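Sample intake sheet
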Amino acid sequence: MNNSFRNNPASNNTNLPPILTKKTGSTIVLDTVKSSSASSDPFLRTEIEGCFTFRNRLFKDQRGSFTKVYARELFMSVGIDLPVAEVFISNSQKGVIRGMHFQTPPYGLAKVVSCLAGRILDVILDLRKNSTTFGKSIGVELSPSNETTVYVPCGCAHGFYAYEDNSLVSYVVDKDFTQSADKGILWNSFGFKWPSDHDRSVPPILSVRDLEFPAFQDFKSPF
């Protein structure tokens, strides 16, 4: 990976200039406002090799907001080429845990994950045997208000916890879904502290399939 992006987080300034309006006949025209993420360096490294967060460009005016969550050319500027193969959207209720999912080679895929509504804790586990962070896991909070997207490299398992009802999550992936290669790691087998570990009032909700994944210590990584 190109190391041109730095460890400086993008600006957190969300104070936008006043919205200017003008009338054209009976129509009110809104002048474009500036992005709340004006930094020229929106990428931030995480503790997992090759995994980083991206500060979305959020535009606001009286109508609402408009967000860019992925731009191939921008990602290529830091050495990541993610041609879009498919885009998935999931809707999860509070307490839902999805994960930890990945596709085995030669169908391994990278993904860009965004939270479009609600709030989630996105979780990544490094399964790459030659990675300096093999076996390490991290959590990144995603929501529309924090304007953050996560890039998950190929060879990492991915999942998330939904803090709120109707948490809407978008996945942009660079390979087609292949059912025979669709595998997973048991969610509570790799030492990560999930929010449900601290809040017993909301028991975790998982699919039968996710509960039947092998534990991390029993998993032989193909990556």
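Comment: Residues 72-76 form the longest helix (5 residues). The first strand starts at residue 21 and ends at 24.
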